[in-house]
Amino acid sequence: MKIQWYPGHMMKAKRQMLEDLKLIDLVIELLDARAVMSSRNPEIDQFANGKARLVLLNKADLADDRVSAKWVEYFKAKNIPVVLLNSKDKSSKKRIETEVMEACKEKIERNKRRGILNRPVRAMVVGIPNVGKSTFINMYAGKAAAKTGNKPGVTKGKQWIRMGKMLELLDTPGILWPKFDDEMVGEHLAFIGSINDEIISIADLALAFLTDIKERYRNLLESRYGVSLEEDNTKEDAVKDLYKIAKARNCLKSKDNYDYEKSARIIFDDFRNDRLGKISLEEPTLEKEGEGLGEE
Asked: Which end of the chain, N or C, is less packed with Cβ atoms under 10 Å?
């Protein structure tokens, strides 16, 4: 599937972000722990050049723990501070505060030498649509400071949120980039809900999803739907697998006419809401180590 989605408001949001970066000490980048490299806007490195950085692997509670541990090592090897995060769980808050202060230590010390005391760190929170930025900010602030929603495009404009005496966060709209060079990036973003489902054939997307994960997570699929999936992993087998899931979930349009779109929506609803189990779509590999996120 060739998926591209770049609504007009994203260009405007990008221009505003570049302007706001002049006010920022730290860039906090939220990535989806299930699709770490695909959920990373490759333009951020250029935008945030010279700024302190912190990476949060959000929705880590939905990702494969074994794979997430590999991603933590990947970022540590590049000297980039990283925290595994479930933005609905407040237990991460203290760890993030520590990492923020550590990342901005030089800036804070420089201010002290200039006689500027207790100036709050100003951080910009960036990420693609539906990665959980607003939920993270609300968890951190301890109140509904930012609008949230389980679909892309909820945050329309920038929002400053004061986090105690030492931190101010700027929430920004989710921004993609104009073209996905790798077809799989578009698919993975669609799987996790960062691309509007309405522009995609959801049944075709489900076939791509089953083909992508069956080899590694066959047991989770078979357990959830009570079916025996095809032994091989071709697109033809994915069609048969989707038929089996539609039949198991009684997704009928009429007698013996199964509703593949309905069964596809069931699959993605299960995946995105942790009913399938912990699944990661990507692992760090030797081929990817040269991509994105350069050395600090």
From this structure: C
